[in-house]
Amino acid sequence: MEIYAKGMGYLQLNEAVRACTDNRISIRGCNGQRFIACASSGRQIDVHGVAGNGAGAYMESGVLNVYGNAQDALADTMNGGEVYVFGSCGDAAAYAMR
Q1: If you ran DSSP here, which 8-state letter would residue 70 be given?
Q2: Residue 58 in contact with residue 77, Cβ under 8 Å?
Q3: Is the pTM of this model over 0.85?
Q4: Contact status, residue 28 vs residue 8, Cβ threshold 8 Å
Q5: Residue 93's pLDDT is what?
Q6: What is the pLDDT of residue 14?
Q7: Which of 1, 56, 89, 92 meets the CB 3.0–4.6 Å disulfide criterion with 75?
Q8: DSSP 14
Q9: Which of 13-17, 29-33, 60-64, 90-94 has the lowest mean pLDDT?
Q10: Which of 69, 83, 87, 82 is nearest to 32 (CA)?
């Protein structure tokens, strides 16, 4: 499934991601929306653009690919899974990763 994030707030975007039943989600037009893939499990989420603060936080399993830059606290307190950033990453990446 593809979600077009342009013009969406982070709450609206994350509700759309949680409501999706697909195991593979592509988010396009991302521009700093926070908490993408937060506490997700067993999914592949591809972010095209800039992932905001806290992306991948508390992930249990799955894969988060960021095709662009990621802001601060990427994968903060992540329990499992994989995160790949094809760009630059802000401060405290993988801080307290378990």
Answers
A1: B
A2: yes
A3: yes
A4: no
A5: 81
A6: 96
A7: 56
A8: H
A9: 90-94
A10: 69
